[in-house]
Amino acid sequence: QNESTNVLSVKDVTMKFGGLTAVNDLSFDLKSHTIHGLIGPNGCGKSTTINVLTGIYKPQQGQVLIGSENIVGLTTEVIAKKGMVRTFQNLQLFSGLTVLENVMVGLHSSYKSNLLSILLGLNSTKKEERDIKASAYHLLEFVGLEKQAFKKAGSLSYGQGRFLEIARAIATKPKVLLLDEPAAGLNHSEILSMMEMILKIKKIYIAILLVEHHMDMVMNICDEITVLNFGQKIAAGTPTEIQNHPEVMESYLGN
Ligand code: ADP
Ligand code: MG
């Protein structure tokens, strides 16, 4: 795989809500095999950017390219099939299903039978069911939750839930994973595990856009960083370049 290929290109994207410009003429590239940080003060447009990329909002201006294809106007489901998936700033798990079943939800789209029929044991062949369970279990091992496989997702700690959410997101083997504040609400040791896991995800050739407030995490694991303020890009570069950027420090101190 070519190290400098752009898996995702954001070109001149503007997203307005009435009179408010949440994202203002934003452009950046996510290169394959990299972790790209998107940082900036609260309300600067980070989550809106993720919502635009995943088809939840349609921007008034600009293009979002996966490879060379513009995906603006496509639905979230179609964009996921093209290889871009996300996690949410707030957990979105099925608390009544088991941990394993939550990952199976993420896997079902790559199999013929739908999730409900698999959970009910209908229509799906025994082999298909076994394959899905085995893949789901393997993903739980990847994120370190295999011991929780048969517990209800609702019984997990908040931190464990965040890891489960990521297991589910990477189940479809996306090209691009968008993480919205994965460290929020985690304790120190969970943050270290989260950093390790994000680095492991990069190793399996999933490029990552990391929205995060936890600066130690961002500065330690990102290859490149884009900084937003009031919806506009105010700086971009390596972690070292960003840490030495006066305007960036000002926008954070002013927050
Ligand atoms: P961040 O994730 O960087 O904290 P957001 O992207 O959530 O910021 O929000 C950027 C701005 O857009 C904020 O002023 C927010 O209130 C506004 N905004 C976000 N979503 C909507 C929406 N659906 N309707 C109206 N305003 C919104
Ligand atoms: Mg946000």
UniProtKB/TrEMBL annotation:
Residues 8-255 form the ABC transporter domain. It is found in: Cell membrane. This is ABC transporter domain-containing protein. It comes from Potamilus streckersoni.
